[in-house]
């Protein structure tokens, strides 16, 4: 592109390029038999390879647009019955709940899916299904944290952790879900009190992403961080020496193992109401929870399979088995707004 | 003309329209807790970035346009380079270098044996950090516009001032600067609008600005309506500033006098030359070379990853979209700007103000403003066809590249319009009058007199929109057709997964493609100068 650009006739080139792009767009949106259109909040790199495999096996062409979950739901809502999308993929349960509320999904019943996916990880009315599990865990500096004193998320509100905790902003969906999960299982005053104490213990104003929190623990800026486990996995497997070294200095701690279990969220999928080929869309979702696909999530992104009996990758095995919170993940969506308000009140930036 | 403005203003009006909808209880919560924070932080951010871009942009423009020092020709185009750097990308690179776990602080700790808390180091992820990052990438707006204005200032005026006994600083502050006021106002207001619309930088730095609030309200609270209302208030605020600024220089005129004379540059030597080179280098290094090197280092850490097959397609898509959108914006800006010149009046001024609002609003919000009317149109046509002819037309506009380009126009028209208007403002109306009295019809006047005189401004307008679209992310993300990606989309996906090293390559490519028009513009300006 850079070298072939002819300065003398840019107009012609542009026209040709434009025509080509328009043709591609028109063709891909056209009505070739057996095409599935996906709106995905899961990023391309974390879903496209699986979709390609599905295409290879079935001959169904799969088209993809990625974007933020809420924006995609808005696109679905405004496009209405003419929306070209067949499947909505999201990276958290809250968005699936919201898509359900917006009425953009249609129920799809499948024995394969009900058998493979635990009841708390799919909607009771068959509107959406969980595809992979994401756990929010504690990352500790082993030399500075006594694990007798830290077992539950709840412990982090104790004044002994003052100035020792790193976490990203409350705008992050997984932080919101964590708090929503608490609201679902204890009264709101209790959750608010925990939030107030927790926020008082921050080592620094919330900032950066999950990897930054892990790096801050490794560098000694704080002793405990709250992150999604796959970020630690990605750092351990990183090509960047600094990232890998930082990750090797910290340890993963599964919280709440003696009570409700570690907080989990899911990535999931539902068939859109506008879809005229729900059977084909269902086949895709069934493919995504097949055993080999499930293994792929663990190997590629260190997420946990949604179905039992799928062997974990070596890295996940090293972190050991854990008890996951059995809460119905729809609750995370139902209580999301309440969680955000509670976090605002606690001044969690 | 007003009809064109109305179509372009449609998405903005959709969002403003949300003000007439119901107000949810979420408002009460916002006012009680976080709204004050959002407002205060955004105002501080605006003040900081305003001062920063004014200082950097005007001093860089003065040095390269009016002074002669070693390397001036190089700096005059090199100082545009930071513009190609998306704000969130520069934020990532500086964080990588300067945060607690980064190489700079680690080196300090290793050298002096310090631990956490033993020393003070400026926190990059803070309001101040955000001001620095945004100023570094946004000053080129001021620089470009003001430099053109300085260059078009007649030497005669400046020399008159000098010969009347004014010192050089006095000439600068009392003559050159006031004469460049429309360009300064245009440049700084573009930078400020971009600042208000920024989401990537402030959210990464954990600064709760107004945009953070809009997205938090939408994504976190699930209140799209309330989020749209917040965005509407943001737009009204910007509109007010826009009108105030216009009012304040309503009675002032800033015409270029006489024939075009290239300014005679003031030769700097000795310590002055050293200071000039030092200042220009400092801006260039911190705004471009340092972050670009960091990106290059990330790419080189694993060159294997650099060979992504779809890469050329991504670059092609980005280039194509940017070129088309820049051309559309330029034509419309010329049309609207010229229209206002022919028929000045409250209606067209207001209309031009309204179509400029899009620039101050986060792209995602504009995208929603485009989605709603387009999908409504599509569905109405479809329903009608189904009822009358029994066929379905599906979605005609939604999900096409056309919708995307339209959204870019809504979002970036302000950039080209401000540039064209500030250029037109410097052309004396008596020129129009003499040309008209010689029998030129308006279109031929535009083609034969104004466009040649405006050449610098037009190219600037083209370049600014091109680079802006190249970097644009949120609108592209939500409105693009299936299987259509751009460099910015790829960079964002990788960066949002915190794979900064992987995001470095597309980010670097954005910067490199952004260089093309910069070089084109520079060559054109150079030949322009040589010709005159």
Automatic annotation (TrEMBL), chain A:
Which family does this protein fall into?
Belongs to the bacterial solute-binding protein 1 family.
GO cellular component terms, A-Z: outer membrane-bounded periplasmic space
Organism listed in the record? Chromatocurvus halotolerans
InterPro entries, per database record: Ferric-bd (IPR026045)
- Alphabetical UniProt keywords: Iron, Metal-binding, Signal
Keyword Metal-binding among record annotations: yes
Domain of life where this protein originates: Bacteria
Question: Which is an annotated GO molecular function term of this record?
Answer: metal ion binding
Residues that bind Fe cation, according to the entry? 230-231
- Protein's recorded name: Iron(III) transport system substrate-binding protein
Automatic annotation (TrEMBL), chain B:
> What is the organism lineage in this UniProt record?
Bacteria, Pseudomonadati, Pseudomonadota, Gammaproteobacteria, Cellvibrionales
Tell me which residues make up the ABC transmembrane type-1 domain.
Answer: 39-245, 315-521
Report what the protein is called: Iron(III) transport system permease protein
Q: Answer yes or no on keyword Ion transport.
A: no
The membrane-spanning stretches of this chain are 7-26, 38-62, 74-94, 127-150, 226-244, 265-290, 310-336, 357-377, 389-410, 453-470, 503-522
Q: Which organism is it from?
A: Chromatocurvus halotolerans
Q: Which Pfam families match?
A: BPD_transp_1
Regarding protein family, the annotation reads: Belongs to the binding-protein-dependent transport system permease family.
CDD domains of this UniProt entry? Answer: TM_PBP2
């Amino acid at each position: 592109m850079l070298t072939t650009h002819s300065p003398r006739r840019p107009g012609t080139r542009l026209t040709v390029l434009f025509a080509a792009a328009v043709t591609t767009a028109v063709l891909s949106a056209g009505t070739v038999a057996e095409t599935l259109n996906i709106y995905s909040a899961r990023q391309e790199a974390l879903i496209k390879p699986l979709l390609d495999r599905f295409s290879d096996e079935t001959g169904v062409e799969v088209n993809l647009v990625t974007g933020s979950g809420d924006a995609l739901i808005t696109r679905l809502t405004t496009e209405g019955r003419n929306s070209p999308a067949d499947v909505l993929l999201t990276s958290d349960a809250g968005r699936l709940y919201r898509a359900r509320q917006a009425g953009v999904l249609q129920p799809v019943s499948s024995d394969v899916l009900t058998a493979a996916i635990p009841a708390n990880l799919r909607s009771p009315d068959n509107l959406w299904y969980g595809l992979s599990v994401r756990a929010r865990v504690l990352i500790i500096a082993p030399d500075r944290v006594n694990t007798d004193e830290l077992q539950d998320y709840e412990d982090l509100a104790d004044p002994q952790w003052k100035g020792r905790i790193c976490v990203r902003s409350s705008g992050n969906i997984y932080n919101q879900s964590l708090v929503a999960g608490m609201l679902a299982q204890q009264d709101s005053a209790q959750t608010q009190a925990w939030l107030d104490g927790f926020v008082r213990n921050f080592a620094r104003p919330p900032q950066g992403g999950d990897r930054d929190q892990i790096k801050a623990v490794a560098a000694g800026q704080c002793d405990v961080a709250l992150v999604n486990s796959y970020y630690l996995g990605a750092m351990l497997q990183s090509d960047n020496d600094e990232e890998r070294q930082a990750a090797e200095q910290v340890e993963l701690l599964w919280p709440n193992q003696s009570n409700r279990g570690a907080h989990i969220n899911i990535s999931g999928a539902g068939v859109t109401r506008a879809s005229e080929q729900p059977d084909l869309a269902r086949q895709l979702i069934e493919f995504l929870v097949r055993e080999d696909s499930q293994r792929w999530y663990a190997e590629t992104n260190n997420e946990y399979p949604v179905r039992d009996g799928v062997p974990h990758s070596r890295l996940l095995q090293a972190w050991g088995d854990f008890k996951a919170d059995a809460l119905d993940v729809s609750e995370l969506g139902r209580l999301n707004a309440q969680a955000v308000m509670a976090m605002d009140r606690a001044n969690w930036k | 003309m007003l009809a064109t403005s109305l179509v372009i203003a449609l998405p903005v009006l959709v969002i403003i329209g949300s003000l007439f909808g119901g107000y949810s209880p979420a408002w009460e919560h916002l006012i009680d807790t976080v709204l004050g924070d959002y407002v205060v932080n955004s105002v501080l951010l605006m003040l900081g970035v305003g001062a920063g871009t004014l200082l950097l942009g005007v001093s860089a423009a003065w040095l390269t346009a009016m002074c002669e020092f070693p390397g001036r020709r190089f700096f005059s185009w090199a100082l545009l380079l930071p513009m190609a750097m998306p704000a969130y990308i520069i934020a990532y690179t500086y964080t990588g270098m300067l945060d607690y776990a980064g190489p700079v602080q680690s080196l300090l700790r290793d050298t002096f044996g310090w631990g956490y808390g033993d020393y003070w180091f400026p926190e990059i992820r803070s309001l101040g950090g955000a001001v620095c990052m945004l100023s570094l990438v946004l000053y080129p707006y001021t620089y470009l516009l003001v430099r053109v204005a300085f260059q078009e200032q007649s030497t005669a005026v400046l020399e008159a001032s000098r010969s009347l006994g004014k010192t050089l600083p006095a000439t600068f502050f009392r003559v050159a600067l006031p004469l460049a006021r429309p360009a300064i106002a245009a440049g700084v207001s573009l930078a400020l609008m971009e600042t208000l619309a920024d989401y990537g930088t402030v959210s990464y730095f954990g600064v709760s600005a107004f945009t953070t609030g809009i997205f938090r309200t939408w994504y976190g609270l699930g209140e799209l309506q309330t989020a749209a209302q917040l965005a509407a208030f943001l737009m009204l605020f910007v509109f007010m500033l826009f009108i105030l600024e216009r009012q304040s220089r309503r009675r002032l005129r800033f015409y270029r006098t006489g024939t075009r004379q290239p300014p005679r540059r003031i030769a700097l030597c000795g310590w002055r030359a050293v200071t000039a080179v030092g200042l220009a280098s400092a801006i260039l290094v911190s705004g471009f070379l340092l972050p670009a090197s960091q990106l290059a280092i990330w790419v080189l850490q694993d060159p294997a990853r650099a060979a992504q097959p779809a890469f050329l397609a991504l670059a092609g898509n980005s280039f194509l979209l940017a070129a088309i959108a820049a051309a559309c914006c330029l034509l419309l800006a010329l049309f609207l700007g010229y229209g206002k010149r022919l028929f000045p009046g409250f209606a067209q001024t207001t209309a031009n103000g309204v179509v400029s609002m899009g620039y101050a609003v986060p792209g995602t919000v504009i995208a929603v403003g485009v989605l709603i009317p387009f999908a409504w149109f599509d569905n109405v046509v479809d329903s009608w066809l189904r009822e009358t002819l029994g066929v379905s037309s599906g979605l005609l506009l939604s999900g096409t590249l056309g919708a995307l380009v339209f959204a870019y126009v809504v979002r970036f028209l302000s950039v080209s319009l401000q540039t064209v208007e500030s250029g037109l403002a410097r052309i004396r109306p008596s020129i129009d009058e003499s040309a008209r009295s010689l029998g030129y019809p308006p279109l031929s006047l535009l083609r034969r007199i104004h466009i040649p005189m405006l050449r610098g401004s037009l190219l600037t307008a083209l370049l600014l929109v091109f680079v802006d679209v190249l970097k644009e992310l949120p609108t592209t993300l939500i409105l693009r057709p299936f299987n259509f990606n751009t460099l910015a989309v790829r960079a964002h996906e990788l960066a949002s997964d915190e794979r900064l090293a992987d995001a470095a390559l597309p980010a670097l490519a954005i910067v490199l493609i952004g260089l093309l028009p910069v070089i084109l513009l520079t060559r054109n300006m150079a030949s322009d100068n040589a010709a005159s």
